[in-house]
Amino acid sequence: MKVLRYVVLFAGALLFLFPFYYMLIGSLQSEPDTSVAGAFPTGGLTLHNYADINSRVDLIGSLINSGIFTGGVLLGTVVFGVLAGYALARLRFRGRGTLFMLVLLVQVIPFQLLLIPLYVLIVRGYGLADSYLGMILPFAINTTAVFIFRQFFLQLPDDLFAAARLDGAGEVRVLWSVALPLVRPALLTAVLLTFIGPWNEFLWPFLVTKEAGMQPLAVSLANYISTVSARAANPFGAILAGACVLAAPAVGLFIAFQRQFVSTDLGSGVKG
Amino acid sequence: MIAKVLGRHPVGLILSAPYAVYLAVIFAYPLGFAVWMSFHDYFFAAPGAIVDHPFIGLDNYRAVLGDPGVHQAFRNIVVFLVINVPLTTGLALLLAVTLNRVVHARTFLRVAFYVPYVTASVAVVGVWMFLFNSGGLVNSALGPLAPDPSWLINEHLAMPVIAVFVTWKQLGFFILLYLAALQNVPTELYESASVDGANAWHRFWSVTVPAVRPATALVVILALITGANLFTEPYLLTGGGGPNGASASPVLVMYQRGIQQGEPDFAAALGVLLVLGVLIVAYLNRRLIERD
Question: What architecture (CATH level 2) is domain A48-271?
Answer without folding.
Answer: Orthogonal Bundle (1.10)
